[in-house]
Amino acid sequence: MLRISARFYCKIATQSSFKAAEYKNKIKKDKKLNFTQLLHPTKVPQTPVPAAFSDPSENVVEIDTKTIQLLERLSLVDLDSDQALATLKSSIQFADKIAHIDTQNVRPLYTVLEKQQLQLRNDQVTAGDSRAELLRCAKVTDEDYYVSPPGNIPLEQ
Amino acid sequence: MRRHLQLGIKQLTAGYINGHLSPLSVAEQALQDASSLKTLNAFVCMATDLALQQAKESAQRYADQRSLGSLDGVTIAIKDNFCTSQVPTTCASRMLQDFVPPYDATVCARLREAGAVLLGKTNLDQFAMGAGTVDSIYGPTKNIWSESFAADNWRIAGGSSGGSASAVAAGLCYAAIGSDTGGSTRNPASYCGVVGLKPTYGLCSRHGLIPLVNSMDVPGILTRSVSDCVEVLNAIAGPDALDSTTIRQPYKKLQLPEVEQIDLRSLRIGIPKEYHCDALSTEVLETWTKVADLLECAGASVRQVSLPHTAASIFVYSILNQCEVASNMARYDGIEYGHRAADERSTEQLYAQTRAEGFNQVVKTRILTGNFLLLRKNYDHYFEKALRVRRLIAEDFAKVFEASAANEQVDILLTPTTLSEAPLYKDFAALSNRDQCAVQDFCTQPANMAGIPAVSIPVRLSTAGLPLSLQLMSNSLNEQLLLTVARWIEAQVEFDCLESLQRHVASL
Predict the structure, then answer these.
(1) What pTM did the predictor assign?
(2) What sequence ranges are listed for the domain Amidase (chain B) (predicted)?
(3) Is residue B37 part of a domain?
(4) Distance in angstroms (rounded) separating the CA atoms of residues B435 and B433
């Protein structure tokens, strides 16, 4: 069997040196490509290409308390800090930047596989009885049931 | 130096077959190395016992001359958002911190069946929402190419598959699985100096990949060479009855020509001009320019093309991401699996408290924003609008790949992957997650919009000694050509993925 040296190769692991690799490296460096030398007029634009669409003026986003409460209810997460609110507002501003793009007669692209028919399978049981396995993932169970606290009580806000 | 690290997967398994190497000793050393390199924080969980068990079984198969094929005994790592049976799968979130899936993702099952040895699960941004692998409950992942690991003076690995990229770059495994929704495989591949492939949408099954954005998510592959990438792709690709969004036509295993046999003279390369955006670094531009020139020198026709909706893409991506996140994250309520809060006042209260404790700020804000964009009064203005612009973006690609006039067509697009070398942690953390994603994903997310394949390959080192990479994109299901060209470039630039390891030694 080929002997694999037990020596470590990284500074965090060891302080020993590895001459052979350094040497190999040196040879390699000598014939490295010259990245400033070109043989053809380049097709790569050498200056930034300005975005072909204009930015709408930074419209100020205002969200009222009612909307925030609605969002918290729908999301079941709390908007708990001024910073979170600022991020929400700036994300909406960010989303507004495509508003002016002309999409007349352009259909929404829901999936890139739109030309493929979705495969349907027969309505038959194919997997085995995995009740025990699945229930094991839950924190609280009672016999063969998941357990939740009383329902139909509105979220305190 | 572990000499076998320099080998490709093909050479490694050849070593197993002729008995010069053993899967068990390779796995043992990999586990040992992973523990010595803990400072990188590439792994969130080691599957030590399982790995040794798998390696033993593999060694036995080789001894019996009935190996399972080209991945038998090859050490791999899997991003912690793929379900692995009996191995915890956390998405680096408190929400799933103690979740042990009862099943394997299809990708994991296929790797298991191919005999690959799973070393462990790798770090990511919580639920894969990020571009730095800095937003994880297990702490950030560090880049092996960092000049220093002190304080916050180290380089980020990129993300969100930063743990997978870091593990491959540090020689801890031969291949790692990542996921790619807007660049999450290619971005860390670019920063860590490894090959990162985002296959065509639907080529690899998403079954068991915990969903972020269903219409864009794909499993990704990270390796140290293009050939290794092909070996892994061949093992995991193909239709899956458990994922109705896989492409139904049978997968034909790729076989790349030898480098000397690659002829680029009939190849048409497009340079999409809009990919030169404001923040592009001089060194990346120089690299992009030089590789375009190399291709032209080899006889390929290289010309500039326009993908006019490129700049709009990042906004569309942000909208679709947040909308699908809002919907996908609704499943986490603490009842059936995952974290459950102690609040028993009411069902709604339990849900809310569970989610307040389980998600970080990034996830919460994306859910709230997504639900805002999906409100009845906003739905058309944001969500539907974004889907319409998404079609324009996809059509931009179709126009260059399928132009009616042959002289306007191109086969491959060449662009940067990231706009710079890997940033320092302190610089990266100075901007918010949302602002970072807008910069980091600029060149990568358009491919996810259109579902086309894209690969990032390392090209050279920057003056700071950090990897600089480029991206190639091609038309759907054109992986064969995409990776052939990638392999050709790889051979010209001779990037040494493991150089960082030697340098760490040399610098002391």
Answers:
(1) 0.94
(2) 37-483
(3) yes
(4) 6
Catalytic residue flag (residue B432): no
Q: For residues B185 and B220, is the Cβ–Cβ distance under 8 A? A: yes
Q: Is residue B160 annotated as part of the catalytic site, yes or no?
A: yes
Is B184 labeled as catalytic in the residue annotation? Answer: yes
CA distance B326 to B324: 5
B276–A45 C-beta distance less than 8 A:
yes
- Least Cα separation, residue A95 to chain B (angstroms): 6
Q: CB under 8 Å to B468, separation ≥6 — which residues? A: B190, B283, B284, B287, B421, B458, B459, B460, B461, B462
Q: Number of structural domains, chain B?
A: 1
| Best residue of A69, A76, A142 to probe chain B, by most B CBs closer than 10 Å | A76
CB contact under 8 A, A109 and B387: yes
Q: What is the CATH number of the domain that holds B233?
A: 3.90.1300.10
Distance from the Cα of B441 to chain A's closest Cα (Å) equals 15
Q: How far apart are CA B313 and CA B217, in angstroms?
A: 16
- Which residues, other chains included, contact B299 with Cβ-Cβ below 8 Å and sequence gap of 6+? B263, B264, B265, B267
> Cβ separation of A77 and B345 shorter than 8 Å?
no
Give domain status of residue B306, yes or no.
no
Residue B406 placed within a domain: no
Nearest Cβ partner of A150 from B274, B286, B347? B347
Q: What is the SS3 assignment for B366-429? A: HHHHHHHHCCCCCHHHHHHHHHHHHHHHHHHHHHHHCCCCHHHCCCEEEEECCCCCCCEHHHHC
ipTM comes to 0.93
> Domain of B470?
9-264+454-507
Q: For the segment B358-376, what is each residue's pLDDT rounded down to a tens digit?
A: 999 999 999 999 999 999 9
With respect to residue B138, please indicate whether it lies within any of the assigned structural domains: yes
Question: Would you say B410 and B269 are in contact if contact means Cβ atoms under 8 Å apart?
Answer: yes
**Average confidence score pLDDT of chain B:** 96
The verdict on A130 touching B (C-beta cutoff 8 Å) is yes
CB-CB under 8 Å, A39 with B297: yes
- Which candidate from B248, B359, B438 shows the least CB-CB separation from A116? B248
DSSP B84: B
Tens of pLDDT, residue by residue over A105-125, are 999 999 999 999 888 888 998
